Amino acid sequence: MPGGSQGKTIVVGGDGRYFSPEATQIILRLAAGNGIKHIILGKDAILSTPAVSALIRSHKTDGGILLTASHNPGGPENDFGIKFNISNGGPAPEDVTNSIYKITETISEYKSMNLPDLDLSKIGEFNHGPLKVTIVDSVSNYVSLLKEIFDFGMIKNWLHHTTPKPTVLFDALNGVTGPYGRAIFVDELGLSEDSIQNCVPKPDFGGHHPDPNLTYAHELVEAVERNNIEFGAASDGDGDRNMIYGKGAFVTPSDSVAIIADWAEKAIPYFKSGVKGLARSMPTSGAIDLVAKDKGLECFEVPTGWKFFGNLMDAGRLSICGEESFGTGSDHIREKDGVWAIVAWLSILAAANKEQPGAGINDVLMKHWKKYGRSFFSRYDYEECESEGAEAMMSHLRKLFADSSFVGSTLKASSSDTSFKVAEADDFSYTDPIDGSVSKKQGLYIKFTDGSRVIFRLSGTGSSGATVRLYVEKYSKNESEYGLDAQVGLKPLIEVALGVSKLKEYTGRDKPDVIT
Ligand SMILES: O=P(O)(O)OC[C@H]1O[C@H](O)[C@H](O)[C@@H](O)[C@@H]1O
């Protein structure tokens, strides 16, 4: 099935090629998801769905997509199939990965060649046998992009002209963002060498776990506390996630994305002309929803996984989004971007200091909670559980949810009299508002009448056995609680979650491996 793409037009087929119903569906869904209004059918190509064939004949539009037959399909062709317009750089949609998988089943031979060691310090195009290799300087390209997005002058002004001078520590956790951290913090912002650590990428990450959370980024947390550092930040092994941590101030990813959204227009030039919409993954706390409501913006709740944000961005309905799993980003690219989030926070602090000289992370957090209330949030990870026990726990919950007496029942904490009344319990399902695709079984949730939630999910990324994730969220408008440690504020709810799921009974685990 040869094909090509021409801007906002998809050209498919040629030479009387036949497209199966599945392939047809894929074409239409991708076209809709990418805002493509025009599909040109190559010479004598046949789309198999009768409705589509009828449309082709009558040149009618379907959901804004105009199908036209053409004798000049144009565009590059390949041996395998449809060349989709997925040039937005985001994670490949499932339809595409499924198609690729199908193709792999027909591969009968492959060839390999020995490449000489490439000198990556030489930028340019080089020929190696039949291969043309282009070496780019990704760091300088990325820094140029960030300089278009953020006001580096404002950040520098805050860093160098405030008394006392704010202190900063960036930790690349021996991952890929080391050179980026050096370029931004040392070369661009003019900070000293001791404002960065672990910035030489190592294949084994220095023997550590390159995860920016309180457990694995403890070296950063300890250094920030020991040296009274105003602004600490870490990004992960491949640079798409981030953690923001200042002296005595851990910013949960759920609060982080809400606060970035709140300050965006004021602190980040990229958003000066307005924010299009906001979004979060389902288990992420509702803090960002409150910002959206205040600003009159659309807010989407999508399943866990960044790919769900891409369609909304391509359709011009989403600017800023985040996940509780330390991913935060915007529509400048179609992936979460750890370094972007860190520079966004530097921008927020620089802007906050214009209003309140000396403002630190804690001041920004407290100001936010005073305006919107605080969503206490925590995630418990039980790693490498026996898959059977974990699945049995999920089945137990599903059965419980199916019992009509569960909604309306009261669940009591084990160590106090605090209780919660069940308002809703279900398995999260999402219908993509752009292409209509439906994703089911995305996490079991219980919502209580006071707005609190507990969620149970099996990780899709764990490497052995099953990882059970328990997410708990409790909203408070009581100012005297804002300074509380999240674990204290959430204790009764965590007890209820452990009780109702019988987690210990099913998994044999009495404490989580990681708490965030
Ligand atoms: O399924 P989990 O282990 O909870 O992982 C969920 C995470 O997986 C990947 O890292 C995706 O890129 C993230 O967008 C997602 O949040």
UniProtKB/TrEMBL annotation:
Alpha-D-phosphohexomutase alpha/beta/alpha domain boundaries: 6-110, 165-245, 256-371
Catalytic activity entry: O-phospho-L-seryl-[protein] + alpha-D-glucose 1-phosphate = alpha-D-glucose 1,6-bisphosphate + L-seryl-[protein]; alpha-D-glucose 1,6-bisphosphate + L-seryl-[protein] = O-phospho-L-seryl-[protein] + alpha-D-glucose 6-phosphate; alpha-D-glucose 1-phosphate = alpha-D-glucose 6-phosphate
One MF annotation (Gene Ontology) recorded for this entry: magnesium ion binding
SUPFAM superfamilies attached to this UniProt entry: Phosphoglucomutase, C-terminal domain, Phosphoglucomutase, first 3 domains
Transmembrane segments: none
Example GO biological process: glucose metabolic process
Keywords in alphabetical order: Carbohydrate metabolism, Glucose metabolism, Isomerase, Magnesium, Metal-binding, Phosphoprotein
Cited Gene3D superfamilies: Alpha-D-Glucose-1,6-Bisphosphate, subunit A, domain 3, Alpha-D-phosphohexomutase, C-terminal domain
Main EC class the enzyme belongs to: isomerase
Record bears the keyword rRNA-binding: no
Cofactors demanded by this protein: Mg(2+)
GO cellular component, one term: cytosol
Family, as annotated: Belongs to the phosphohexose mutase family.
NCBIfam families documented for this protein: PRK07564.1-1
UniProt-recorded name of the protein: phosphoglucomutase (alpha-D-glucose-1,6-bisphosphate-dependent)
Naturally occurring in which organism (per UniProt): Saitozyma podzolica
